[in-house]
Amino acid sequence: MDIFYKALLWFHLLGIALGGAASFGHPVLGAIAQKTPEARPFVMRAGKGLSSVGRAGIAVLVGSGVLMVWLAWDITAMSGLFWAKMALVVVLVVNVVLAGRAAKALAGGDMSAAARLPAHGMIGVALMLLLLAFGILAFR
Ligand code: HEM
Known about the structure:
There is one protein chain. By secondary structure, this protein is an all-alpha fold. The chain has helices at 3-35, 40-72, 80-107, 117-137. The radius of gyration is 17 Å and the shape is elongated. Protoporphyrin IX containing FE (HEM) binds next to helix 1, helix 2, helix 3 and helix 4.
């Protein structure tokens, strides 16, 4: 494994750290918002910052992942586990987009959007756990 590939793997693991912070942080913020209504303005701002961290994580993961595949793997010979991982990445992106829309609607005063956010948070945690497993299984 040459040094450039190792650097890309380092970025991939950095992306997991950033994405993990957002995945696991949002449900914690949600619990605080439910138990402490006066903290909601802070929770909204913190959630926005955490979303940016998570989006940066996904960008780093996809960028480093695509480059690693391009450099060292044969895309025509990838396992079903790899393609399952790619499908999960798509679901993750859709979940992030829908959660972002719900958060924007809530910030605009649509209280019904608040009910959707915990589900997006739980789906995000589940996807992160699955992606970690598929990431390891698909390449070793
Ligand atoms: C977006 C969420 C993603 C997560 C959470 C994730 C997670 C992981 C994990 C846990 C590993 C194992 C690391 C190791 O064994 O050291 C891994 C490896 C890898 N991932 Fe991802 N990944 C993601 C996206 C992608 C994408 C979009 C691609 C490519 C299109 C990709 C390509 C790779 C490659 C090539 C490796 C093998 C690295 C190696 O061990 O040589 N990943 N990923």
